[in-house]
Design goal:
The chain is of the alpha/beta class and 325 residues long. It is 41% helix and 17% strand. The protein has 13 helices and twelve strands. The strands form two sheets. Strands 2-1-3-4-6-5-10 form a seven-stranded mixed sheet, with helices on both faces. A five-stranded mixed sheet has the order 7-9-8-11-12, sandwiched between helices. The longest helix has 14 residues.
Length: 325
C-alpha cells in the first residue's frame, strides 16, 4: 500500500460518507411528491443507502424485501408491469452478480421500466472485500439487450440522471459510488440521453472518464495544464448508449485518448471506447486506465484509489506515459 491504514481515519471517513450520504433519496422524494407511480424497494439497506427518509415520508410506497435481492428484482418487475415506476436499491455487487439473471430475464427481456440504483460500485466497499466489490458490473449490464447503463460521478449528477431518465423506456442500471464523492458539478446537470458531458475542452489529448474517475481526470488536467498540456475531459455518464460522436470527435481532434474507470479493464468503458475507435479505423494513441484484471486488495477505499492510481496524480501519470510512449 502507498500509505499505512489508519483505523481512526477510516472511521472518520466512513462517518463523513454517511453524513454526506446519497442525494438519491432527496430526488426520489421530490419525484414521489408530484407523481403517484414512484415506488422504492430495497433489500434491508434503507439506512446504508439513505432511503430511510423516503420510507418515513412515503411508507405505503416503500418495500423492504429483506435480504432477498433476486426476489426484489422480480417484485419490481411485477410493479412495473402494473404501471408503477420502481426504483430498487442495494449494493452494486449484489445487483450485477447475484441478480444478473433476474435483471436480464425479468427486466431487460421484458423491457420493464425498473431503475436499479446500484450503490457502492467498484472497490468503494473497501474493507468488505471481494464479495462486495463490483468491478465487473459494466461488462455484465452493457451486454444485456434493452438495458440502459449510466454512471453519474457525484451527487448533483445522480439528481440530474434520475430526472433525465425517469420516463425512459426499459430498465436502467445506475452505477453509483458510496455517496462521499468530491463534487464535480456545482448544480444539477441537464443530461441528454446517450451523450457525454464535456467538462473541459482541450486539443492535446482527451480523458474519457466515468464515476469517480471524472473528478480525478479534472484534477489531472489542471495539473498538466501547468506543464503546458491542454487536456479535454469528457464525463461518460452514459455507458449505454455510448456517445460515439464525442469519442470519434475527440480521437480526430486530439489524437490521444485515455479512459479512466473503477472497473476491470475488460468489458468496461475502455473496451467500449476502443471498439468505437477500431471500427472507425482510426490510428491514435489509446490506453485504458482501470483496475488490474485481478481481485482488489482489502483496505479503505481512499487507500485503494491511491494504490490503483485512481487519483489526479495517477491519471496524470498514465496520460503522460501514453503521450510519451
Amino acid at each position: 500500500m502507498t500509505q499505512p491504514i489508519d483505523a481512526h481515519s477510516w472511521n472518520i471517513e466512513t462517518s463523513m460518507a454517511h453524513l454526506r450520504a446519497f442525494t438519491m433519496s432527496d430526488e426520489l422524494e421530490r419525484l414521489a411528491t408530484v407523481r403517484d407511480d414512484i415506488v422504492v424497494l430495497t433489500a434491508d439497506l434503507a439506512s446504508s443507502n439513505g432511503l430511510d427518509s423516503f420510507q418515513r415520508k412515503f411508507p405505503d410506497r416503500f418495500v423492504n424485501t429483506g435480504i432477498a435481492e433476486q426476489n426484489m428484482m422480480s417484485v419490481a418487475a411485477g410493479l412495473a408491469a402494473s404501471g408503477m415506476t420502481p426504483f430498487v436499491s442495494t449494493f452494486a455487487s449484489f445487483t450485477s452478480l447475484l441478480c444478473a439473471e433476474q435483471m436480464r430475464t425479468d427486466l431487460a427481456y421484458t423491457k420493464m421500466k425498473v431503475r436499479v440504483l446500484s450503490h457502492h460500485a467498484g472497490i468503494s466497499m473497501g474493507f468488505y472485500g471481494t464479495s462486495h466489490h463490483a468491478v465487473e458490473d459494466i461488462a455484465i449490464t452493457r451486454a444485456m439487450g434493452n438495458m440502459t447503463v449510466v454512471s453519474p460521478c457525484d451527487g448533483e449528477a445522480v439528481r440530474g440522471m434520475i430526472r433525465a431518465t425517469v420516463d425512459l423506456d426499459g430498465p436502467i442500471y445506475f452505477r453509483l459510488g458510496r455517496g462521499a464523492e468530491e463534487p464535480v458539478y456545482d448544480a444539477v446537470p441537464d443530461f441528454e440521453i446517450g451523450k457525454f458531458g464535456c467538462l473541459r475542452d482541450g486539443g492535446d489529448a482527451t480523458v474519457i472518464a466515468t464515476g469517480i474517475g471524472v473528478g480525478s481526470a479534472l484534477d489531472a488536467a489542471t495539473e498538466l495544464a501547468k506543464k503546458g498540456l491542454d487536456v479535454r475531459v469528457l464525463d461518460a455518464a452514459f455507458l449505454k448508449p455510448l456517445d460515439t460522436t464525442a469519442i470519434l470527435k475527440a480521437a480526430r481532434e486530439t489524437g490521444a485518448i485515455l479512459t479512466v474507470e473503477e472497473h476491470n479493464p475488460h468489458g468496461g468503458l475502455g473496451g467500449a471506447v476502443a471498439e468505437v475507435i477500431a471500427e472507425a479505423g482510426l490510428g491514435i494513441k489509446f490506453r485504458r486506465h482501470a483496475l488490474p484484471d485481478d481481485y482488489a486488495l482489502v483496505a479503505p477505499p481512499t487507500h485503494l484509489y491511491q494504490h490503483y492510481g485512481l487519483t489526479g496524480e495517477g491519471v496524470a501519470s498514465a496520460l503522460t506515459e501514453l503521450l510519451e510512449g
